[in-house]
Amino acid sequence: MTGRSAIGIDIGGTKVSGALVRDDGSIRHRLQRVTPHRTTSPDVVLATIVGLVRDLLVAAEQDQHGPSPGRSGTSTRPDALVSAIGIGAAGWVSSDRATVVFAPHLSWRHEPLQERLAAILELPVFVDNDANAAGWAEWRFGAGRGEPNLVMITLGTGIGGSLVVDGRIQRGRFGLAGEFGHMQVVPGGHRCACGNRGCWEQYASGRALIREARAIIDTRSPVARELSALAAAEPGGLSGPMITQAARGGDRTATELIGEIGQWLGVGLANIAAAVDPGGFVIGGGVSAAGELLLGPARESYRRCLPGRGYRDEAFISAAELGNDAGVIGAADLARSALR
Ligand SMILES: [Zn+2]
């Protein structure tokens, strides 16, 4: 017999996604809203989440009892429809999973999100970092299945990370475990938004890919001709997916740029292996769409940088399997597992 579904909410920089998730990780319903801009009050973001949850509860009720035209909201108690609500937020979340301490893209500063949502929605609520949610989903249902010690790296504009040890997400004492993107890999290197220089995410992320592509376009070198033409044709300028597409089409410069990101990825993975010795790494996020063009060079440089190479077992490095759904699936399942 399967348990009740849970609701997962993924709050990103540009959109809020919600889904009704079965206990096998499959999605019954999904909905999406635009993320309120960072200048709007915390109340607006809260109202967006509440609206999404109520619409998903209506969908859950219709699954149980069929459509009920003419009525808004639900007549069934919410805890008879779903077991819990999990929130994955792009920000720092306290280790007790109650408070969003700081979210750079939202207006939350020490926001007691768990307490406020639980009072309105009358359901158990658990808040987590969005990278933890995605990592948990890949560990339970995706590319990390069966590996008790797993690291997930999300390569987007920056780098997100999460760590599962002996089947448990590691949140750290202050909720900030897994911020691998801010390990220093180049002393005195590129400036980072965290305040430091030379952070890994300045070398192995979507932002790094675009910075390097622009740098080579600026040299007006013949090798950048195709990238230059792509950038000129697009009003929004060059994007990561355009570079990936050019590489897939055989452009050598684009292939090299993605390969360099992959090499830096491998350097950071070797550092993480030295610290936590996982059995596997799962790589997700927009940049991972480059597939083997990224992961091939990452594996090579990982082997080159690994401490004790040649005398130890090596963790696998695999592409994530759940794509953009990982956030909602993981948030829902983390909330459900917190009830056990
Ligand atoms: Zn940094």
In short:
It contains ten helices and 13 strands.
* Number of E strands: 13
Largest beta-sheet characterization: 5 strands, mixed
Total helical elements: 10
Strand arrangement, major sheet:
3-2-1-4-8
Which second-level CATH architecture of the largest domain applies? 2-Layer Sandwich
* CATH topology-level fold name of the largest domain: Nucleotidyltransferase, domain 5
What spatial form do the alpha-carbon principal axes imply? globular
User: What is the first-to-last residue Cα distance?
Assistant: 16 Å
Describe the structure.
Strands 3-2-1-4-8 form a 5-stranded mixed β-sheet. The chain has a 5-stranded mixed β-sheet with strand order 11-10-9-12-13, sandwiched between helices. Helix 1 (42-65) crosses helix 3 (113-121), helix 7 packs across helix 8 (252-276) and helix 8 crosses helix 9. It is 39% helix and 20% strand. It has 2 domains: 5-140 and 325-339, Nucleotidyltransferase, domain 5 (2-Layer Sandwich); 146-320, ATPase, nucleotide binding domain (Nucleotidyltransferase, domain 5, 2-Layer Sandwich), CATH 3.30.420.40. It is α/β, with parallel strands linked by helices and 340 residues long. The mean pLDDT is 92. The structure holds zinc ion (ZN). Zinc ion (ZN) binds at residues 182, 192, 194, 196, 199.
Keywords:
340 residues, alpha/beta, Nucleotidyltransferase, domain 5, 2 domains, five-stranded mixed β-sheet, 39% helix, binds zinc ion
List the helices and strands and how they pair.
Blueprint: E1 5-11, E2 15-21, E3 27-34, H1 42-65, H2 78-81, E4 82-89, E5 92-93, E6 100-102, E7 109-111, H3 113-121, E8 125-129, H4 130-141, E9 150-155, E10 159-165, E11 168-169, H5 206-218, H6 225-233, H7 240-248, H8 252-276, E12 280-284, H9 292-305, E13 316-319, H10 326-339
Parallel strand pairs: 1-4, 4-8, 9-12, 12-13
Antiparallel strand pairs: 1-2, 2-3, 5-6, 6-7, 9-10, 10-11
The structure holds zinc ion (ZN).
Zinc ion (ZN) binds at residues 182, 192, 194, 196, 199.
